[in-house]
Design brief:
This protein is of the alpha/beta class. 45% of the residues lie in helices and 12% in strands. The strands form two sheets. It has a six-stranded parallel β-sheet, sandwiched between helices. A six-stranded parallel β-sheet has the order 9-8-7-10-11-12, with helices on both faces.
């Protein structure tokens, strides 16, 4: 198949989320004989850092790059278009009669579009134009049905689990207990503050425990986390997935207590490296973390501390690494990838919006 994938940003502009899915899906499809092109709003390199005051005056690239999609489609003439941003159906509709698959980048809500009437109209048009809608979890699919009265097929994100495990294998686990935070520490939704509060409760049972943050934060923010958690805080740079695998392998536990997650790729990556992962019972996280003992209540630092204690104890068992890898296996690209291809083939066969036929749930 000739397939065009689209998203406003691409790896390595953002290291995780849909940008990571874009890179891995392109790789999987290419390795399995498909002709794949990628359209993004800019070249695949790190953009210049711009102050927020200037960024506010720039055009909305999620909208303006729809013209780039349309021009690419007119040139490429693909069999199918797969948009990984919730507005990408507009560029597809303008540029090609080829069937279009819309991939939801998160959990869709009306609140996220409040005050953004143009985006709301464009999203509605993207849904209408889609031959199929993909959600990363049942939580995201249910939210789409509740908020927008539309249906989606659930296809989780994939991870090259054997590759992650191979990159992790040479790395020795830290001699002292450590918890890895693999999210954007500046995003309130990721709630590193909740983790800091839980660690303040955990530290007495685990002397010398450290918090490792795999995201750039400034020195005042790092010191503030140390004061709040009363544990040492380290900040690590992560230039590529192999470096992430090293951090997972070094950590005793990975913890991301964020809410509103449609999936949570970092949980699967950590499990693939043999390291327990702790999340909260919210969004799609419980669908990814197959070990209920490693799930905490979303807003309770004491319960998160109890869950971290349990996961830290589990990490000391010689059986835990294999259990983690078993939990990650259903998300390997060898299993997830064919589901994407099968969906493409059914959309091409139908050439009608399956969401209206009710067959994608």
């Amino acid at each position: 198949m000739r397939i065009v994938l689209s998203h406003p940003t691409s790896w390595p502009t953002v290291r995780r989320g849909m940008e990571r899915l874009l890179a891995d899906l392109e790789r999987y499809l290419g390795e399995n004989g498909h002709d794949v092109s990628v359209v993004s709003a800019s070249a695949r390199s790190m953009p210049l850092a711009l102050p927020p005051s200037l960024r506010r005056h720039l055009p909305d690239r999620a909208i303006t790059y729809q013209a780039r999609i349309a021009l690419t489609l007119r040139h490429e003439r693909p069999d199918l278009v797969h948009g990984l941003h919730y507005l990408d159906g507009i560029g597809s509709r303008l540029g090609s009669p080829a069937p279009y698959v819309l991939h939801l980048p998160g959990i869709p809500t009306r609140a996220a579009l409040a005050g953004r009437r143009l985006r709301e109209r464009l999203f509605a048009a993207s849904l209408e134009h889609a031959g199929a809608v993909i959600a990363m979890s049942h939580a995201a699919a249910d939210a789409l049905a509740d908020a927008f009265d539309a249906k989606a097929v659930v296809v989780p994100n994939g991870v090259f689990t054997e590759e992650m495990a191979a990159n992790a294998r040479p790395v020795r686990r830290s001699c002292t207990p450590s918890v890895l935070f693999p999210g954007d520490a500046t995003d309130p939704r990721k709630r590193i503050g909740l983790l800091a509060d839980a660690l303040e409760l955990v530290r007495t049972r685990w002397p010398g425990i450290r918090l490792v943050v795999a995201w750039p934060i400034d020195e005042p923010s790092r010191r503030a986390l140390e004061r709040r958690s009363r544990v040492d805080v380290e900040v690590r740079e992560v230039p590529d997935p192999a470096a992430m695998a090293s951090l997972y392998a070094e950590a005793w536990v990975t913890c991301l207590p964020s809410v509103g997650e449609a999936f949570g790729l970092v949980f699967v990556e950590s499990l693939a490296c043999g390291t327990p992962a702790v999340g909260v019972r919210d969004g799609g996280v419980p669908e990814v973390l197959g070990e209920p003992a490693w799930l905490a209540d979303p807003d309770d630092p004491a319960d998160l501390a109890r869950t971290l204690n349990r996961a830290l104890r589990d990490s000391c068992s010689p059986l835990t690494a294999s259990h983690c890898r078993e939990l990650a296996q259903p998300f390997d690209w060898s299993i997830v990838g064919p589901r994407f291809v099968s969906l493409y083939e059914e959309v091409l066969a139908c050439r009608q919006p399956p969401a209206r036929q009710g067959q994608w749930r």
